[in-house]
Amino acid sequence: MAAKDGGEVSSKLVLYSYWQSSCSWRVRFALNLKGISYEYKAVNLAKGEQFSPEFEKLNPLHFVPVLVDGGVIVSDSYAILMYLEEKYPQRTLLPTDAQRKALNLQKYTEEKVGPQERLLFAQTNIEKGFLALEKLLKDFAGKYATGEVVCMADVFMAPQIAVATERFKIDMSKYPTLSSIYESQKALPEFVAASPERQPDAVH
Question: Is the pTM of this model over 0.85?
């Protein structure tokens, strides 16, 4: 199978994912942006499928996502995104400008809370992160996080903002820069296609 823009993609590219995992969402988003086809293999975290012997061979830490590309196994969404950027350079997600590239590589958008956290605790931690992010991006943001082109920072940000607003009821009016960026991000067909409700294991 071939990717868009002519890059060759292994026929064995497989993503182990869970529909509600925001870490999996960012990888699905990146794969879509790069035009890479992949096989979706659902891992039902609610049923503990991440502890199965089969999955433990792929990731002994029992987390999703996991990407399998032929004989290469990569877990952790950040590591997967860096692998995809290196192995499949079509539709790059990192700017050439050194400062903007560094901004995209900061892990300030890493999810710090899970669905099991108390709502108030989760809101406090998310809002602290969003306040910092608002300050970091205000001088760099354009239509998207670090300019006029979708980059890796957008891949991290968009699912996290979606989860923050839908699951944790965060009021985004406090963050005008992030809110404006998210309006552009959520309109992207690649983001919509990667959204939890569009996944084959989604529970409606």
Answer: yes
Instruction: Indicate whether 1 pLDDT > 50.
Output: no
On the question of pLDDT at 143 being above 80, the answer is yes
Q: What is the pLDDT of residue 112?
A: 46
Distance, in Å, from the CA atom of 84 to the CA atom of 90, rounded to the nearest integer, reads 10
Q: Give me the pLDDT at residue 39, please.
A: 97
134 neighbors 175 (Cβ within 8 angstroms): yes
